[in-house]
Amino acid sequence: MTARALPRFARSAKVAGSTEIPGGTPMAPSLRSAIGAALAGVLAGNFTIAAQAADKVAVGTGGSASDAPFYIAYDKGFFKDEGLDVDLIVLDSGAKVIAPLGTGELDVGSGALSVGFWNALVRGIKFRIVADRGHAQPGYLYQTVFMRKDLIDSGQFKSLKDLKGMRMGFAAQGVTSLSLLNEAAKYAGIKFEDITPVYLSFPQQIAALQNKALDGTLLIEPQATVAVNAGYGVRFMDTNEFYPYQQISVIFFSDRFAT
Q: Which of 9-18, 108-117, 219-228 has the lowest mean pLDDT?
């Protein structure tokens, strides 16, 4: 298998050095080693089987905390130990890995079960789901309803019913968090149409919260930690409260890579 050109909308994200979540604290070496070892068993082993003697493997990520094992394995040299030259490519939304996986620009992707995924299946494009990447579970706080701090402090936002008339940020059209917003609306007794979606990448959402162009969003880590530490917002509610055990994202293999 030969390396394909990188998608024009992506950028290379090869990294070196310690693993640290922006706005948080460095991950303990023992934890890094444990996660890296687990990744080597779950992912690198699969890569070896699928890629055989492949020199390069293009991996698309969404840049969230659940992608940390990829970077730990890269930093620790686990991929090289398996004879793999892995290129980590960051996209601004997990939903955007679907198209390049279907065309073969990516071999592996970490992304969401978005509208694009289901539409691709209907068109006959095949993928392999090989591992969990992120899901809601009690106590995880993996994904939260995140609101501007001034709205909470002023009492303007007290419950999910107050989402009515609010501008909420989403990474792209068709992402799974739009379905999550619908569940939040039903839980609060309001309509999905009562809330205004605004489509911005996660970094742009942080800036929009700061300048009050957004009222809130549904943030995953590490973006939520960055925003909390900067004083831009508050984790109002764990989404598991109104959409329990949601399978948010997974690890994909392209069909050509898997076969």
A: 9-18
CATH code of 157's domain: 3.40.190.10
Tokens of 115: 């509208």
Neighbours of 98 (CB within 10 A): 27
Closest CA to 249 of 218, 211, 210, 228: 218
Is 193 a domain residue? yes
pLDDT tens digit sequence for 209-227? 999 999 999 988 888 888 8
Q: Tell me whether residue 103 is in a domain.
A: yes
**Counted domains in the chain:** 2
Helices then strands, each counted (H, E), the chain: 11, 11
Close Cβ partners of 8 (under 8 Å, ≥ 6 residues apart): none
Q: What is the C-alpha to C-alpha distance for residues 100 and 97, in angstroms, rounded to an integer?
A: 6
Q: pLDDT digit string (tens) for 161-193?
A: 999 999 999 988 888 889 999 999 999 999 999
